[in-house]
Amino acid sequence: MNATTVSNPTTDDPFSEGLSNYAKLISEGSIRIIDALEYCLARIDKYNDQLQAFEYLDVEGARKSAESLQNLLDSGTSLGPLMGVPIAVKDIIAVNGMPTTNGSLHKTRQPGSGEATVVERLRRAGCIIIGKTKTVEFALGATGINTARGTPHNPCDMAQHRLPGGSSSGSAVAVSAGFAAFALGTDTGGSVRIPASFNGLFGLKTSVGRWPTDGVFPLSPTLDSIGPLCRYADDALLVHKAICEKHTNTVSQCFETGEADNTNTGQSHPGDLRGVHLAIPRDLFFDELDTEVQQAFDQAVDCLVKAGATISDTTLPEAHERATLFPQIVPPELIYALGRDGFKQAEERMDPVTRERAVVGLDVDAVDYVAACKRHLELAAIAEQRFADVDGWITPTCPFLPMTLSSLDDPDAHQRSLLASRNTQPANLMKLCACTLPIHHLASSANSEKNRLPVGLQLMGRFGDDENLLHLGSRLEQVIGRVALPDLEQKV
């Protein structure tokens, strides 16, 4: 990992008001691209030794990119609203010139033959790749723990090592700590939404197939998706547009701030949710919640209702099927990706929890696997019918607050930690798009120690409706309120 040597960093957070505002500052010349990068590098230099967000850093390459982009902008050529945005990439996604470990000590083949298409598109949009972020081994794990290559430290509590959430653990920590403006993660059973929730961020699980997954380690091609971990919903919308819209190699139009519009949202003005119909599925998602999670969710619902949203209860008994379907689909697909011999070579040094989840795949027979995949498609059809008269489903993202790693020595706490993906897996298995936004600031007793720890609200939408989901997430965020990044100098 390259060491950071920071020169002339800006002391003001250039991303505090979101990526659209950053684009405006850059276009006006109020801040230079290299200054924004140096802000991130200064924070990495100061805090990453403790937080351990990165598997690999390329400081020299990032600075060269920033200089080139600034020269391009000074010459009158703009690449759009993400030009000069420093980002981080989960270490199961291929980036030219950077190693891919997949979070494992076992050497695995590089995913694909070159750089991932999503990375290539973000480069074309002008993003600066700072480095690769730590991940749970082979992206199979929801707590963020990786005993093979290290577990990042959740920046929401600098005094104690708390779960960062997984599997996109380092990506969440990097954004929450201000090391990057946004980061790429992947989501097969909640691996964007869980760490986003645990780190007080907005996280998007895209519909399978909306973002190209070539160049990404295939944990489960049936369920894998890529998504961004950002500060705000509008940031995620800008990133989503950059990935999904057509791209050209030469762009010379006027610089656009890329402010998110409200197309197809029915929004009359900020804070107005009239005409929005949300449903709360009561099956499974509300079992054994931490008190603080329940309080924050109830307060969020109250805010949405006061803003004009119609919210009703619904049933979703199919959510319980995640306990049987996920083990029948994901572990065998992981073992196929590694090969039986490759898995047996890797498992000796594999994280024990990851190994325990993966080894199940050796005993799933073909009949059960095919039946589970068929049921996955049936659940997608059921979900499509259930969304006929609602705009989205809302639930808590995770049933508990981020635990300390030391608490997991207690067998009961360890068992509870394994429920981190309980509320997120149903969206994957029902082929939905989904996002999470922070709501912990709404909980009562806001000055108590626990209520400073993040809580997420999960919003689920129909398959392929990602843009409308993000617009709706932005509207909910306007009502609930944005949450600042944690103060890394303050000990919880």
Summarize the structure in words.
By secondary structure, this protein is an alpha/beta fold. The protein has one domain: Amidase signature (AS) domain (Amidase signature (AS) enzymes, Alpha-Beta Complex), CATH 3.90.1300.10. The chain contains 15 helices and eleven strands. Strands 1-3-2-4-6-5-10-11-9-7-8 form an eleven-stranded mixed sheet, sandwiched between helices. The protein is globular.
Concise summary:
The chain has 15 helices and eleven strands.
CATH class: Alpha Beta
Number of strands: 11
Q: Characterize the main sheet.
A: 11 strands, mixed
Gross morphology:
globular
Strand order of the largest sheet: 1-3-2-4-6-5-10-11-9-7-8
Strand content: 5-15%
* CATH fold label: Amidase signature (AS) enzymes
- Structural class from helices and strands? alpha/beta
Q: What is the count of distinct domains? A: 1
Uncertain parts: 2-9, 247-268
- N-C termini distance: 30 Å
Compute the gyration radius: what is it?
Answer: 21 Å
Instruction: Summarize the helix and strand pattern as letters.
Output: HHEHEHEHEHEEHEHEHHHHEHHEEH
Mean pLDDT: 92
CATH architecture: Alpha-Beta Complex
